[in-house]
Amino acid sequence: MTIDPNYHTYDPNDPYNIAGWTAQNMLAGPGYPADNPPAPYPVDIAIQTVMATYMVEDGRPLPGSVLLQASRRYRDKATGDLVVPSARRIKVVKGSFTADLPASDDPDLDEPFLYSVHEVVPGGRKFMISVPYNVLGPLRLHDLIVETEYKPIQPPRIYTLSHRQGGV
Q1: Do the strands 126-129 and 88-92 form a parallel or antiparallel pair, or are they unpaired?
Q2: In the predicted structure, residue 138 carries a pLDDT above the cut 70
Q3: What CA–CA distances, in Å, run from 91 to 6, 61, 102, 108?
């Protein structure tokens, strides 16, 4: 078994070390799947593949991850299925990132929405994207950027009972 030396670290310069993200949001490693499992979206919503490449000037791939989250809830008009935004953390593997995302302007949705993107790589940025419905993929992440204010991605809440907080 090979253990990734970046898997567990407390180095503040490590792109895997994101404040607020805990064991519930682990990257692939010992005992965890290497691939990002597909999300079960309503069947009539178009899914687009979004890709990006991260490397330094000499061509070496950068390590890291990308955080994605829809800016709001969205509803499938045909079935009434409601999709609640949930932050996804996707590992950049050998300098490449790939994610399957619902098209944010799909006519089967109640109204268009955007995605918040946080690149957790050296020199990474925070920005918003719109994933188009009517474009053949795969799509390049950085071609989808829209000029609008970034909506921060909230880490998932962890609910625990503690004697210090009056729990049992």
Answers
A1: unpaired
A2: yes
A3: 12, 13, 19, 30
What does pLDDT average to over the chain? Answer: 77
- Total-model pTM: 0.71
What gap in Å lies between CA 154 and CA 71, rounded to an integer? 11
For strands 47-53 and 139-140, give the pairing.
Answer: parallel
Q: Can you list the pairs that 136-139 forms with residues at least 24 positions away whose Cβ atoms lie under 8 Å?
A: 137/48, 137/49, 137/50, 138/48, 138/49, 138/50, 138/51, 138/98, 139/48, 139/49, 139/50, 139/51
Report d(CA 135, CA 139) in Å as an integer: 8
Q: Which two tokens stand for residue 97?
A: 């990132």
* 19, two tokens: 């404040």
The tens digit of pLDDT for each residue in 72-112 reads: 999 888 888 888 888 888 899 899 989 999 999 999 999 99
